[in-house]
Write a structure and sequence with these properties.
The chain is built from 12 helices and 13 strands. The strands form 4 sheets. It has a 5-stranded antiparallel beta sheet with strand order 11-6-8-7-12, sandwiched between helices. Strands 3, 4, 5 and 13 form a 4-stranded antiparallel beta sheet that branches. The chain has a two-stranded antiparallel ribbon with strand order 1-2. It binds zinc ion (3 copies). This is Plasmid replication initiator protein.
Length: 495
Amino acid sequence: MSDPYDRQRTTTRHQCRFGGPLWKVTTITPQLTPVDRRAALDRAARLRQLSEADRDAIRIAQDPKFSRWLEQVTATGGCAHPVHLSGSTTVLDGATGEILRRYDTRDEPGERLLIRCRNRRASICPSCSRLHAGDTFHLVRAGLLGGKNVPATVRTRPRLFITLTAPSFGPVHRAGELCRPRCGGGTCEHGRPLGCGTFHAPDVSIVGQPLCPDCYDYSGHVLWHAHASKLWDRFVIDVRRRLASSAGLVQSRFAHHARLSFARVAEYQKRAAVHVHAVVRLDGPDGPADEPPAWGTTDRLMGAVRASAGRVLVHTPYSPAVGELALRWGAQIDARAVRTGDDGHDDDAVAAYVAKYVTKGADETGAGIDRRVVARDDIDMVSVTPHVRTLMHTCWRLGGLPEYAPLHLRTWVHTLGYRGHILTKSRAYSTTYAVLRAERAHHVQDLDLPETITDAQWRYVGSGHTPGAALLAAGVAEDVAMNREVAREEREASQ
Ligand SMILES: [Zn+2]
Ligand SMILES: [Zn+2]
Ligand SMILES: [Zn+2]
């Protein structure tokens, strides 16, 4: 009978050293065909050729505590840069002092617990950025539809979705239509054509680049960014003032009659200028739970928003090099009423639209980069378009002028001078990120027992992943995203 594994048997006889009978020893060695031998050699070569990350991943997977490590990574949703903590939490019975529950990282892999980095940028942590976008969605949605401790009556309030743009700092190439048609042709003082008769595809790199970089107002662009948040504040104040005067109120009495709430996000356009999307809502003086006065209608809010957006301005400090600029919003102002159907579809669409923007870092939109610039030479090293690089250089140069020192422009070179948060909201708009996070933590840990004392001692011991761990965590993050997608599709299919 032939050996199914095609092994070779060798039998040897050994003389017993104490004069006993002969020992018969059979050794079985696998019979390697030339093909097998080649495969074995290939396997060895492949192992040698594996990347450092792959070999590291194999090492981690062979660790006896691997399954617990994977549980931890899964609990962070496959966070790309988890924070490592070491410590313990003990829950004691308040009356007897009996230990009800104890958790200690001493038994954990590497004696540590991994928690999420919570970065909002998809380029830095796909998993946490998705979570952050979800929180933003709920935060914006609660202000439109109620929920998360916001009363459902907010859906009957005047609510607008508005988009305010930056003004023009010079013509740029644009996609989707004939770029810059011009009958007479002609060139600027630098000899460059004043028009462009091309249809550009949306993803070509020329889109957003100025027709003439020498004509483009780079100082104006950077200074506008540096004042955009102030311009927004002036805008909100002006809307309140207009509403007050249109209702025949003294401006200082506005807060006794109504309250204006908002949530806004900033987005970089192709030309690397920020524009602002915002939800604006009018309530009674006590906020979401309070009915606005009879004069507080959607039409009146719309009128005030349009008039204020067209009118407010901010003056830059005087500079011998630049002069004094009067900065305002661009002429393109979009404002529309948010209407709630029974299914809340319009509101959902607005909330999803806003949520999408907060996960985009400056890196992804191609406008600026995700980290600070510490030296002027760094600007020449980063991979950005010539237009963005010039904006960064302008920001650095203006940041060196004493008259602009209060703007801290060199700190914001990476965001092209824009220093507002990506999402800002007024206090009464809806819930907060902190409340949403606490709600989730409560859900997961349920450590909040009545009549107990909690003793917790934690310290930071590191962050991030080794190359192999990063590979495994990315796989977990993909699985989580995939599961969520499947669940969403199933939900939609069943509706
Ligand atoms: Zn993360
Ligand atoms: Zn063009
Ligand atoms: Zn020119």
